[in-house]
C-alpha cells in the first residue's frame, strides 16, 4: 500500500539523513549498548547518542569543552525538564501555527524550510479491543515503516504484565499492506479518518491528530471516502 | 527532642482546648513535664494531644517515644503519606494504621515526567485498593502522584469505601473516562475529584451524567486535562445542584457561552479553570460573560486559558484585583503585552505561573505590582529554541523579581542565559528562598558575560538562603558548586543535577555535606562508582537516588546491592530487546539508568523486563 515512489526527492533525502540512526534497531549499535536504542522507550525523542557528531554527554568536562560541541536542547531526551503534558500543549500550538501559516502559502509550493522540525510531539494511538491507548512521538520516526514497527512492538509484543495491552497475538501485524486483521488509520486536522500511507510522510505528520489501529472489517468505508475526497479535490 | 516536642504539643493543646478538666491543665503547667508523667494521663487525653500534631514527621517521632505512645499513635493516625509506594507494602501499612482515612501515594520517580522512565516501570495502584478494600479500611481520601491507575481500581475504589470523599490524581495514567464514571456513579459522598495533568483515555462518554441527581456535595471538580467532549448540559446541571462548589476547572471542550452559564449558577466559586474560546467572541457573549464574572466576588484563583483569544482575558478585569493565584502557563495564545496589562492589576497575587513570553519587561511590571508574590514559575514558550525569539526572559527579569517581591520563597525559572552576578544579587535580595529551580535551556551554558561557570552564582544561593529545601541547578558547573552545596545547604532535601560536575568529588561533597538530603536525582554527569559506594549508609537516610547517563557501572551497582540489602537497586535498561542480555553481562558496562530507594519490603514483584533489581 505504501509507495516510496510517491515521496518527493527532498523528503527521501531528508529521511536518509534522519534514517541513519533510526532504521530497524541499528541505533543500538551506535555508541554503547544500553543507551543508544531509539526504540527501547516507545516513541522516545532522539537522544544525543543518535547524533554522533554532537559530542560526548560529559559536556561539562572543561577539557573536552573546546573539542566536542555540547548537546543542544533539541537533541537531548527529556530536556528541557518540562512535563510531557505541557510539552504536548506547546506542540499543539506550534502545529496550529504551522497550519495557519500553511494556509497563507500557495498550496503547490514545497515547504520552504524542510529542515524545520515539526513539533507534533506525542500523539495518541488507540487500538480496537484495547482499553488503554498509548502515545507515540512522531518526531522520532522517519517513515511509515518505522511507525508501523513501533506500533507493532507496542501493542503486540507488550509485556503480559502491562495493563490493557493485548499480548496474545503472535503473528506480525503488517499494518501497512492490508493483509492482516488490522489496518492503521488516522484522524486528520479536519476530523476525517483516513488510511495511513497515502500521502507523503512529511505531509502526514503535519496533518495527523491521532492514530487508530482498526479492524480491517471496519475500515472498509475508509478507502471509498478517501477516494471521494480525492475526487472532490481534483474538481 | 521528643520531650520538647511533647511539651510543645501539650501546651498547644491546652491553649486551644477548653474541654480538658482544669486540674489537668493546672498540673501540666505547674509540673516539669516528662513523658513518664504524661503517661499518668488516660489514653484519650494523650490521643487528644496527638491530634494537634499534624505533620507526618512529628507523628513519626512521637511514635518512637514508647510502646504505649506507639500504640496510641497508631490508632489515632488518620493521614498517612507514602513518598515511595515501593518502600512499604499495603498490608503492612494497614496493620500499623488500621484507622487510616487519608492516604497519599507517590509512584514513579520524578524524571518520569520527562519521559526518562519506561511506561511500564511500575507504580500500580491496584494492590493498594485491593488490600484496603479487603481490610475494610474507612478510606475517605486518596491522593496519588505518578501512579498507574486502572479503570478496575477506580471501580473497586468507588464500591469499597462508603465514606469516600476526595480523589486527587496528579500525573497518573492507565485509566479512561469509564473509571471516572464509576467514581461519579458510586461515591455517594464525593466532595472532590481533582485531575491534574493525567493521561486519561477519553472515550468521549457520558461520565458526567453518571453523577446521580442526589449528588449535591461537590466542593471541587477539576477535569482540565481531559481532551474530549463532555456533556455540557450534564455539567451545568451538576454545577447547579452543587451549592458547595468552590473549585471548578473545566477542559477545552467548554466554550464561552457554557462557561457563562456555569459561572452564573456558581457565583460562589473561589477557584476557576477556564476552557477554550478560540475565536473572538461576539459582543453580546462577551458582555454576558463579563456580567457573570462580576458576580463572582469570591473568585481568588484563575487558570486554564489553553486556547483563548487574548481579549477574553480582559473579561476578568472586574475581579483581577481579588486574585491571589493566577496560572496562565498554558495560555500560549496570549502575547506578552496582554499578559502584562492584566497582571499589573493583580496586586494581591501570591502565586503566578506564566510563560516567558511575558519577557523581562513583564517581570519588571510584576515586580512593581505584585508585592505579595510568594511563588513564581516562568515556563518556556519555545523550549527547543526554534524561533528567533528575543522576548524570552533573562537574568534581568529574575533580578527584578527578587528585588521587588520581598515575600518570594519559591521559584521555577526557565531562561536562555544567566550570570553569576545576577544570581548573587538574587541570593542577597531573597534570603528566604525555600525552593530555587533554575533551568537554563542550553545544557552546560556558562555565564554569558564572563564565560565562566555558574559555580559562584549557585554558591551564593545556598550560602544566603539558609532555609533552602529544594534546588535545581543548570548551566556550566564544576565540582566546586557541589562543594558549596555540601558546605552551606543544610536544610536541602531535594537536589536535581543535569550535565554538571567534573569528578566523583562533586557527588561526594553533596552526599557528605547535605545531612537532610532525601531525594537526589542526577543525569548526564560524570559521577561513578567511587561516589556511589563511598557511604552506603547514607541511602538509608534518603528516600531515593536516581542516576542516568552517568559513569556508574553494573559492577558498582552490584556491589552496592550486596552491601545494602535494605535497598532496592534497580537498573533500567532500554536496549532494543527490552531485556538485559545476561550472557553478555559485563561488570564494567555502564548502567544507563539507576534508581535506588530504601524499602522495608524487599524486591518488588511487579517489575517489567526492562528493570533488573539487583
From TrEMBL, chain A:
Biased composition (Basic and acidic residues): 101-112
UniProt-annotated stretches for the region Disordered: 25-44, 50-112
SUPFAM superfamilies for this protein: CAD & PB1 domains
Extent of the signal sequence: none
Compartmental location: Nucleus
Pfam families: AUX_IAA
One GO cellular component term: nucleus
InterPro entries tied to this protein: AUX/IAA_dom, AUX_IAA, PB1-like
Location of the PB1 domain: 120-216
Database matches in Gene3D superfamilies: Phosphatidylinositol 3-kinase Catalytic Subunit, Chain A, domain 1
Regions of compositional bias (Gly residues) in chain numbering: 25-40
Source organism superkingdom: Eukaryota
Keywords: Auxin signaling pathway, Nucleus, Repressor, Transcription, Transcription regulation
Gene Ontology process terms (BP): auxin-activated signaling pathway; regulation of DNA-templated transcription
Assembly and oligomerization: Homodimers and heterodimers.
Task of the protein: Aux/IAA proteins are short-lived transcriptional factors that function as repressors of early auxin response genes at low auxin concentrations.
Family to which this protein belongs: Belongs to the Aux/IAA family.
Protein name per UniProt: Auxin-responsive protein
TrEMBL record, chain B:
Keyword annotations: Auxin signaling pathway
SUPFAM superfamilies per record: RNI-like (SSF52047)
InterPro entries given in the database record: COI1_F-box, F-box_dom, Leu-rich_rpt, Leu-rich_rpt_Cys-con_subtyp, LRR_dom_sf, Transp_inhibit
Boundaries of every F-box domain copy: 41-82
This protein's record includes keyword Endoplasmic reticulum: no
Identification of the protein by name: F-box domain-containing protein
Organism (species): Brassica cretica (Mustard)
